[in-house]
Amino acid sequence: PCWPLFPGIVRSADAQIVEAPLYSLLYEKPETDIAGHLQKYWQEGICALYLNTPNNPSGKVLTRDQIGQVAEFAKEHDLWVISDEAYDGLTFDGHEHVSIASLPGMFERTVSVFTFSKIFMFAGIRLGYAVAPAEVITNVNKIMVHQIYGASTFSQQMMIEPVCTRKQWSPAVRDTYRQMRELFVKNLRVEFAVPEATYFLFFPIQPYLRGRDYRDVVYALFDNGVSVAPGGDFGNGFENYIRLCFTGETEERLEQGIDRLNRVLLG
Q1: DSSP 8-class letter at 55
Q2: What is the rounded CA–CA span in Å between residue 59 and residue 204?
């Protein structure tokens, strides 16, 4: 599954998407031969691979070995890699975030994209940055100047101190999110893959419909004050999933939300 806006961004450039479901699969089968799996979806004309680890919405973090398999596939097929690393810094339980561009032979074919919206918690300023070879950044700038013109000087200056002091405060942010995750692990009485990163839960509610329509259950959650994102927005095959965000509220409010989720889903 992937960030819902990405397919639209690709299509706006007159390109096409080929979906290759991977992250949720790895929770069930971590030993999956990733190169062999991706090869099943290979088509002539594919020029780039979109990689998102830590993954929104599944919370999956690819290991160094798994990212190495992706890298070898990209090199074998001469692909660019667009590496979405928005959730850099928000990994739990010792999981390591590895940038694919740091692997041998990958920097020259990778555009790594980061944001100040997640671990930095400045989503409202809509600021981020990309890391790539100089000639790539030069051409990206030519395109971006016709789209956003430029990020405001104020917002860029605003981020200097948080970047410089990140190692001082970011572990506390990560630990707070991990504690919030544990509330759901302990109290939400449905089956879900425990996210290794991010601040989302992503799981199917098919087992809990009990003859009800999927949309009716989603609306019932809304009516009970619990907002969820429909899974179909994140890719084909996830139409019976929902995504929950477990941050942005107090512990008391999260506990209320968990209680309402249990009541609607389990009856």
Answers
A1: P
A2: 14
Residue 26, classed as helix, strand or coil, is: helix
At position 228, the amino acid (one-letter code) is V
- What's the full length of the chain, in residues? 267
pLDDT tens, residue by residue, 188-245: 999 999 999 999 999 999 999 999 999 999 999 999 999 999 999 999 999 999 999 9
Phi/psi for 156 (5° steps) reads -70, -45
Residue 148: CB atoms within 10 Å: 10
Report d(CA 155, CA 243) in Å as an integer: 30
Distance CA(164)–CA(181), nearest Å, equals 28
* Cα of 82 vs its chain's centroid, Å: 13
Q: What is the pLDDT of residues 27-57, one digit of tens each?
A: 999 999 999 999 999 999 999 999 999 999 9
Question: Which tokens is 49 given?
Answer: 């691979």
